Each structure stands twice: as structure tokens, then as C-alpha cells.
TrEMBL record, chains A, B:
Residues 5-134 form the RNase III domain. Pfam families: dsrm, Ribonucleas_3_3. Gene3D superfamilies: 3.30.160.20, Ribonuclease III domain. One of its GO terms (biological process) is regulation of gene expression. Mg(2+) binds at residues 47, 120, 123. It comes from the Bacteria. This is Ribonuclease 3. GO terms for cellular component: cytoplasm. Keywords: Cytoplasm, Endonuclease, Hydrolase, Magnesium, Metal-binding, mRNA processing, Nuclease, RNA-binding, rRNA processing, rRNA-binding, tRNA processing. Its EC number is 3.1.26.3. NCBIfam families: RNaseIII. Residues 160-229 form the DRBM domain.
Length: 232, 232
């Protein structure tokens, strides 16, 4: 475990007061099962706690960072961030797979790279850090490995264009976005709608679609494309 | 809102530094929609935050209170505690339904007693308390309105204590457990049963219930509580 404590210290400036907690976090149940005589504890209870520690840390961050996002958007973002696939990647980014103690069977079954195992490990580590220190220490750690990704838009994929446009524009404060139907054409069975999107009275884009909703999405997409291209 | 601040102070010793946060927590979106000229904020973002605040507070409590419960049991308990029906009852217990600001339509539709609305209100209040003060203040409040219920076994229904006791005792080898009916009292339509549970000839606990089955469950629960407390 010395390698791990040195790594955490040099990489993240983290020093545990109680190393037993850190060891517990990096001990998978398969290891405990193969070493029953040692009376070890696996990391599952710490994972239970860490799950909630992650949830509050991320929620607090999102709440303050996106002061103008409505609740629905915050909830969607949060669930993207705390899902297994995301935690798995955080764990890999931190190199935690190199340090977890596994049983031989688990090792042979490629458990060391298994997403659910590494996601649980990430939560267990947060749980141990919270117990050993406090929420502040956890947030400090996350501000190095998770929050920059949120800010970089890693979890904003899969969002519809209207939501993304809103997210983008509201970074710099409250803004009123409106969509206006400016044209419809074609016969009833083959109709097209044209919508323009405005913010602060200024036109940002235009879109066409077979429904009003689709046209709005296309207008938002066109606005986003423009905004992002001009920025870069 | 003065009634609410006085009530929180006298009932729970809570004084907000920023009353605007408290007011926001008790403002339903239906009220905001009917008073657009006032530029109010509804409690949905606070609810988003409060959801996570509740989760960590309850998790921390369970983790420490049940130092020997496995993760699966903790997770099951937690989900019972934070589900909508439970939060609805906490909200009612606290009399929060008397203070929430609703729109007229919502009021006429009995919104003031709607479970989801009151559950969200409870979370929003926790979110506001956390923002105004800290997690400690939230835990202090929950130690008055939620934790005693957990300790009282309110959320342990649906759990099979007999199975759990058997699992617990058999960790250290095969053991024979028996349940004995030792008393019944009350008239036929209001009868109570008293059961004692034994293992290895030793009494481990006693339980009372309206059916023999229920009394057995309570006896097993009492035995488990004793065993788990003595271990820690």
C-alpha cells in the first residue's frame, strides 16, 4: 500500500490520517474471500457511503456553477456524471486499477478492468476520504479529476440542441431565448416549418423541419454551430 | 413568512441567516407562475440540492449507527428512508404543508396535501438549510425528525429479521434457532402475541405483535439489535 499512499500524496496532495481506511477502500470482496484468515473488510460499505458523498459534492458544484440552470437540466447533468461509465473512467484516469486488491479468480476474469468494479472503487475511495477527512477534502480531489470535465462539456452530449443552447447562453447570466415560427410551406401532408431562434432580441439561427419541434431543434443547432465556430 | 421563521426557531431551534433562502424553499412553482410580475424563484433548484443533502446525511447516519450491517442492508434501508412516501410523512410531521406558498389552481386541486409536492418541499427545505448553514445543521434537524424513526425501526418493515438473524448467527457455524410463544393477551379482536427467540438454549430476544409471525419478526429484530450493538 506504500506505493498508493505515495502516489496519492504526490499526485493529489492527499495524506490519510488513518491508512486502514484507504486500504479498506482498495480491498475488493474477492480478495477478502480468498484471505479469510486475515479478517479483512472489503470496500462495499465505503462504496455505500461514497455514493452519497459523490452525489452531494457534484450537486453542490452544479448548483453553484450553473446558477441559472433549471432543476431538470441539473438533474440530467448529475445523472450523467455519477453513472457507472463515468465513474469507471474517473477511476482509470486516476490509475486506481493499478492499486486495487483482487482475488485470483477476479484477476483472471479481468476484474481489474471491469467497469462496475472500478466505478465502485472510485466511490469507495471517496467514502474513505470523507471519513478520514471531510467533504472539503473530497471536493478538493474532485476539483482535480471531475469538475474540469464537467466544465469542459464532457457530460453535455446527448442533450438536445435547445437545452445545449440554453446551457451555453446562460453561462454568462440569465438570458431570454425565444423561438418564432416564421414560415410554413408545402401541402398539408408534406408540410415544412421554419423557425428562428432569438436571444436578447437578436437572431441567432434558423432551422427547418417537418414539425415545429424539429424546426426549433434545427434552429438551436444552427445557432450553436455559429456560436462555437466564432468562439474558436 | 414570519410565522414560519418563528415556528422553526421555537420547534427546532433553527434561525436562518438569509430568510430569502427559506422563502424560496417554501415557494412552489405554481405560486411563481401566478405571480410573474414579482420575479420569484420556485423551490425546484433547492430540491435538487436537498435530495443529495438528505442522501449524504442519511448515509452517514446509517454507516455509523449500523457499523456491522453489510452494504446491501444499508442500501435497502436508505432507499426506504429517502423514498417519496417517507419524505411526504416527514413533511407532514413537521407541519410544512401549512407554510408552503401555492398557486390557486394547485390549492384547489388539494396540492397542499399532495405527497410528491410535500416530499419535494422537504428536500427543498434541507437544501436551503444546507446553503444557509452547513451539513451539521441539517444533521441536527434530521436527528429530531428522521433519525429517531430509523432507530425505532419504522423503515425496517419488509425486511425479514428472522432470515437476517439466522444469517448472522450462522456466520460462525451451524446453530439451531427456535421461537417460542410465551404469552398472548387482549380480547380476540385485539390480541397480542409475545414470542421469545432462542439459540443454543440461550434467550436472545423477545418481541410482541398482532400475529405470531409479527411477534417472531420483532423478537428476531430485538436479538439482532442486541447482537450488533454488543459487537461494536
Amino acid at each position: 500500500m506504500q506505493a498508493l499512499t505515495e502516489y496519492l500524496n504526490s499526485e493529489y496532495g492527499i495524506r490519510f490520517n488513518n491508512n486502514a481506511l484507504l486500504i479498506e477502500a482498495f480491498t475488493h470482496s474477492s480478495y477478502v474471500n480468498e484471505h479469510r484468515h486475515l479478517d479483512l473488510t472489503d470496500n462495499e460499505r465505503l462504496e455505500f457511503l461514497g455514493d452519497a458523498v459523490l452525489e452531494i459534492s457534484v450537486s453542490d458544484y452544479l448548483f453553484h456553477e450553473y446558477g441559472h440552470h433549471p432543476e431538470g437540466l441539473l438533474t440530467r447533468l448529475r445523472s450523467e456524471i455519477v453513472r457507472e461509465t463515468s465513474l469507471y473512467h474517473f477511476s482509470l484516469d486516476c490509475g486506481f486499477d493499478q492499486y486495487v486488491r483482487l482475488g485470483k479468480g477476479e484477476e483472471q476474469n479481468a476484474g481489474r478492468k471491469r467497469p462496475s468494479l472500478l466505478a465502485d472503487l472510485f466511490e469507495a475511495f471517496l467514502g474513505s476520504l470523507y471519513l478520514d477527512q471531510d467533504l472539503k477534502a473530497v471536493e478538493n480531489f474532485l476539483s482535480k479529476v471531475v469538475f474540469p470535465k464537467i466544465k469542459g462539456g464532457v457530460f453535455s452530449h446527448g442533450m438536445d440542441f435547445k437545452t445545449k443552447l440554453q446551457e451555453y447562453l446562460q453561462q454568462s447570466g440569465e438570458v431570454s431565448i425565444s423561438y418564432e415560427l416564421v414560415d410554413t410551406f408545402g401541402p398539408a401532408h408534406d408540410r415544412f416549418f421554419v423557425v428562428e431562434v432569438y436571444a436578447g432580441g437578436q437572431i441567432l439561427g434558423q432551422g427547418k423541419g417537418r414539425t415545429k419541434k424539429q424546426a426549433e431543434q434545427m434552429a438551436a443547432k444552427s445557432a450553436l454551430d455559429d456560436l462555437l465556430n466564432n468562439k474558436s
